[in-house]
Amino acid sequence: MGLDSDGEDYPFKTGNYYITQVRRDENTNVLTLYAYDKIYEAASHYTEELDLSTYSTFGAYIEAIADFIGVDGVLYKCQDTELADFKTKAASANLDGSETLRELLDDIAEATQSVYFVNYQNKLVFRRISKENYNLTISKNDYLTLSCSGNRRLQTICATTQLGDNYSASTSQIGSTQYIRDNDFWTNNVNTPEEVDSALALYGDLTIAQFDCNWRGNYLLEVGDRIRIENKDGSYSYSYLYDDTITYNGALQERTKWSYKENDMESAANPTNLGDKLK
Length: 279
Fold this sequence. Notes:
Elements: E1 2-5, E2 8-11, E3 18-24, E4 31-36, H1 38-42, H2 58-69, E5 74-78, E6 81-82, H3 85-88, H4 101-111, E7 115-118, E8 124-128, E9 136-138, E10 143-160, E11 167-170, E12 176-181, H5 192-203, E13 207-215, E14 226-230, E15 236-240, E16 243-248, E17 252-258, H6 274-278
């Protein structure tokens, strides 16, 4: 995507999008285009379409899916440093062929403590977020409105199964619990306690500010970028780029936000939705 201004082209740092639908408003004559990247396509294909018997590492699974959906390669990174352990860390999934490739990507990200997306080079990126460094400061001069509602800290990671064979690990700080339910890479895995401990070592006490910011925008940001936000009193909050909308109507405006919804019914034995419960 890009802007054309006075004969000059200003490209947005985004991947390739594929148009699936075009609608015209008969009253305003405005065209709306619906387009998605290749991850969308992964939701309509299943693990039975891959030769899973040949994959022994997380990288092998990821690269097979990337090749299947037709992106231009894979990147593994934390900030700007490429990670090698995705390619070497052993992975064994408990799959029956009915899982979509999108579900498999979700499980891989969850089991490796990462987020994934297609970047501006049209490559599938698996990325671990940073707890320390930040990619951008949004100063008071940059935003139009800002509301903050406190921080959330990760205290506990709990891996659960249908059989109730659960394992959890916690830090000493008070915070929230992340439940990992029936992950295909951790189900019936004798190393699950070791994996949970490793995940907690990476992200235990991770603190994310809840915020909603309308600002002048920066389209060069990527999913998972850590943001430092200058509050109205001059102090700083830290959060991540997870929920973001860019609008161009003669000028660039961006709405970036993140919030945490507490669920009183959440527990290891009580999934948050009926689908998980029936599964």
